[in-house]
Amino acid sequence: MREFKYKPPRVHSGQLRTPITFYEYTPNDGPEPGEKQKSVLYECMCKVERVWLKDLELAKSNGTLSDLTITIRDPQADYRPSNQNYLEIDDVDYKGLAYNIVTAQPNLQDRRFIDIVAKVATQ
After folding, report:
1. Which regions in the chain score pLDDT beneath 50?
2. Quick check: 11 and 71 in contact, CB under 8 A?
3. Among the residues of 17-74, which ranges form H helices?
4. What is the phi-psi region of residue 63: left when phi exceeds 0, alpha when psi lies from -120 to 50, beta otherwise?
5. pLDDT for the residue 67
6. Residue ranges of the alpha helices (H) in 1-123?
7. What dihedral do alpha carbons 15, 21, 22, 28 form, nearest 10°?
8. Rg of the chain's alpha carbons, rounded to an integer?
9. For 30-61, how does the pLDDT look when each residue is reduced to its tens digit (9 = 90+)?
């Protein structure tokens, strides 16, 4: 018979330490191209993961070096992240950078969290 070994969850709520803001853009008024920030949709705490060193070469070849994986607690019906939204991380290292959401999906190992992949928005 196989011996039982407890495996702690990959993420727990004590690791969500970085403030994050989700918002949407709207096109500029008039003939000038571009967008402006419209409204804040949701604010919460998150865990930010960068590209792992073992995946660094693959990320360079794919052009995904600046991609982030962000884990947030599932807000249920309050907010659903979509690829139409942007996010901003309130941290010194990420100040002034807007990220576009590429995918947002529930964490299949732990349904209490949502995993979001985001890349730097080109504006």
Report:
1. none
2. yes
3. 56-62
4. left
5. 79
6. 56-62
7. -160
8. 17
9. 777 777 767 899 999 999 987 665 566 666 66
